[in-house]
Amino acid sequence: MERNKKGKIDMRKFNNVINSLLVGDRVVVPKSSIRWVQHHAIYLGHENGHHWFIENKEGIGVRVVTAEQFFAGVLQVTRVERFIPKHNYSRQDLVQFALSKRGKSYKLFNYNCESFANHVQHGVAKSKQAQTGIGIGIAALLIGVFAVPFMRR
Question: Which one, 13, 107, 114, 116, has the greatest CB density within 10 A?
Answer without folding.
Answer: 116
